Structure formats: structure tokens, C-alpha cells
Amino acid sequence: MTDSGSTRRTFLFKAATTAAAVSAASRIDIADHAYAGAGDSLRIGLIGCGGRGTGAAEQALTADRGNALVAMGDAFGNQIESSLSALKGSGAPGLAERVDVPPERRFVGFDAYKHVIDECDIVLLATPPGFRPIHFAYAVEKKKHAFVEKPMAVDGPGLRMFMDAAKKSKELGLSVVNGFCWRYYAPRRELMARVHGGDIGAISTIETTYNSQGVWDPRRTREQCKSEMEYQMRNWYYYSWLSGDHIVEQAVHGIDTMAWAMNDVPPERCWGVGGRQVRTEPKYGNIYDHFSVVYEYPDDVRGYHQCRHWANTPARVADFIQGTKGRADVFGKKISGPSKWRYRADDNAPPLDMYQSEHNEMFAALRDGKPINNAEKAASSTLLALMGRMAAYTGEVITWDKAMNSQESLVPASFDWNDDLPRRPVPVPGVTKFT
Ligand SMILES: NC(=O)c1ccc[n+]([C@@H]2O[C@H](COP(=O)([O-])OP(=O)(O)OC[C@H]3O[C@@H](n4cnc5c(N)ncnc54)[C@H](O)[C@@H]3O)[C@@H](O)[C@H]2O)c1
């Protein structure tokens, strides 16, 4: 074994065994995948080579010059090729030469994730969230560290699968950093520390809004796709089994802010409304274009969340936390009331790129042998969004426990490119029942 191989083995081993009471059986054996190209390099694998996955790969490579991207997987081969050329052409000093993904380590199709995970030490999971629990469970089974994009699941069974794997990942001492990146934005961290320190008194209400114009229009027509499966996969945002709907896929950032303010204590129940008023054509699949949900927490605390995807209307993404002594304006980075405060960046201010911060912290912690594992919090924030969606889809009051035990499975049991996948109907409150 070379000196550098020994160093790499030591620090990965240290990272994986720092958590208390990690059993010998849980140790990561890295000998099988020592990276010949770069000493104590960590082998990174990317699954889901779209916009976010490509960004996450770049951030992982930037975070630590010892990191190398060695395997990529995607449902579609063209996505891997365009991600590779973006990474190789990124222009960041020293980055392109650590993109070491020869054709034999480019994996295409529904099973690509297994091959990528088998090849790497740390996997970046950035597919549509319908696949997240399956991919994460396999990564944990193979004892791999993971960066896991939000959200963590699109339904109750998937969430429970993710939570089981999250628990196991902790027992194994694995590092699992999630894509709820707003928690890595320095001004917001300082604001939230003040809120938790009592600067606005006791929290009474939280208001989070994610009103935007929407996302990309369907990318392919049915005629351009060889099967219904391909059609839905190409246009994944508009199918609840793939995206979870926009309250789960996108507005979950605001809902996660609510969870953060509440120290991740779950609400007791929620109720809400939603529907589709603007994006009504069949090409927009089965998701809604607006939601409004009220979360009821212990001690009469209320959380209000609104989100919409309406083109040609003003966007508003804003969060406020009202307390008995003051009010925190999360996006305004300020607090009003007796403990008035406004964020001011000085020369010592931490970096403001929250995406980069996630990776910097993840790799620094790994090298220090103190893996970060916030998988369970990420699952909890995902469930908050899921219960809001369930409330709007059915018109029912949804308790935390009810949502946690939901049996409705949106994701198919198996995946085949020739599948004539049924199109789920748009939910109708009062007709669509909670299951
Ligand atoms: N944290 C953030 O701020 C942030 C921002 C954007 C996206 N995201 C999250 O990142 C994820 C991806 O979003 P995106 O914008 O990159 O989407 P995208 O469509 O650009 O990329 C998704 C990629 O995954 C691939 N894919 C789909 N199913 C797959 C499978 N089973 N196996 C392998 N590859 C598969 C697609 O072909 C595509 O290349 C979503 O969960 C999204 O919520 C997070």
C-alpha cells in the first residue's frame, strides 16, 4: 500500500467510525476502491446529471482538491455527456483534470445508480425525488457517504424507506448532508441563532411564501418519446410520482425554514387548499399550481405557507417569524423590536454561496473524522411538505402521525422504459381520499 493510499484509508476510516458506538462491522472498507490517480483522493459519484447534479459535482470538486469525480449515472445518456462537458469546461482552476469519468464509468438507465454507488466513496444524489429513497437506501446499504438533494421522498412509503436508511446511516457513522441549502446561508444562520436565542421572544406565527412563475415548460411531446414512461421521465416535474408536486419539490425550502425556526419540532396537524387554475392543460401532468396550508403547532403556534406557480404574476419568496417581542424578516436579514438587528457582512463574514458551503462543510467534517449527518431532519422537513400536499389534495385535516403512516404509494414498484405508465388524475378535494 502506498503512503497516500494509507492516508486516504485512515481518514475515511476515521470519518466512518467517529460516531459513538460504531461497530466494527460498520467500518467502510475503502481498499476496494482506492483511486489510483490522486493520492488520498475521495472518489465521488454523481447520480442525476441535470442542472443541480452538475452544480453539486462542481461544488464537491471545488470543496477539496483531493476529490475526483469518477462515475456518473443518469436515466438518459445525453444528460451525462452535457454534464461532463459543462464540468470539463467550467474553467475553475484544477477542476477539469479531476473529472475522471471514462465511458466505462458512465452508466445509463434505471439501474445506473447501483453501478455509480459501487464505484465511489461519496455519492451525490440529484435525480427527481421520486427515486431518492431507493438510491439513498442502496448507498447506505453499501456504506457510502452521501450528499442528498432535497426533497427526500414523494410519498409516505418512500419517506419511511428514507427514514429507515437515515437511521442506519447514523448508526454506521456515515456523513449525509442534505440539499436544504438555506440552512447553509450565513446571514440566515445568524438570524436563526438570534431567533433561537430569544431575540423575538416566543414564536407565535410563521409565514412562508414561495410564489413564483413556475419552472420549465414540458421538454418533450408525447410523439417525441418512445413510451409513456420516457414522456413522464423527460417531463418529470409535472408528475407527482416523480416530483411530489411543487409544494414538495420547490416550496419545501420555505417549509424547511418553518421547521428550522421551530427547532424541527413537528406540527400536530395541518389543513389547506390547492388546485390548478393556470396550468390546466394535459401537458402539465397531474400537479397543482397553487397551495395554501396552515400548520398547527403546540402552544397555539401557527405556521402559514403559500406557494404558487403562476406565469405573468409577481413573484414573492419571503419568510417572516413573528414573536412576542419582535419580528424576524428572514429574506430581509433583519429583526425588528427591542433586539433590533440587521445582517452586515464584514471582512470576516463567512462565504455567502450556500451551495458551496454545504460541500465545504461536508468534506471538511469528513476529513476531520466528524461526519455531519442531518438526514433525519431532512426527512422531517419533507414530511411537513407532504402533509401539506395531502391536506390540499384531499381537503382533510392531516395530523403528523397520519401523514407519517400514509400508505399511498405514488412511485411504481418497478421501472421499465416500455411501460405504458398510467397518468394519475389531478386530485380533487372531497373525491381524492387520504390513504
Ligand atoms: N437545493 C436546491 O436549491 C435545488 C435547486 C435545484 C434542484 N434541486 C433538486 O435537485 C433535484 C434535481 O433537480 P434538477 O433541477 O437538477 O433537475 P434536472 O431535470 O435538471 O436533472 C435531473 C436529472 O436526473 C436524471 N434522472 C431522472 N431519473 C433518474 C434515475 N432514476 N436515475 C438516474 N438519473 C435520473 C434526469 O435525466 C436528469 O438528468 C431535485 O430533487 C430538485 O428538487 C435542488
If classified by CATH, what would the architecture of the largest domain be?
Answer: 3-Layer(aba) Sandwich
Q: Class of the largest domain, according to the CATH hierarchy?
A: Alpha Beta
What is the spatial order of strands in the main beta sheet? 14-13-12-11-7-10-9-8-15
Query: Major sheet: size, sense and barrel closure?
Result: 9 strands, mixed
User: pLDDT average, as an integer?
Assistant: 91
Structural class: alpha/beta
Q: How many β-strand stretches?
A: 15
Any idea what the radius of gyration is?
A: 22 Å
The number of helical segments is 14
Number of domains: 2
Oligomer: single chain
Q: What share of the residues lie within helices?
A: 25-40%
Structure in a nutshell:
The chain has 435 residues and is α/β, with parallel strands linked by helices.
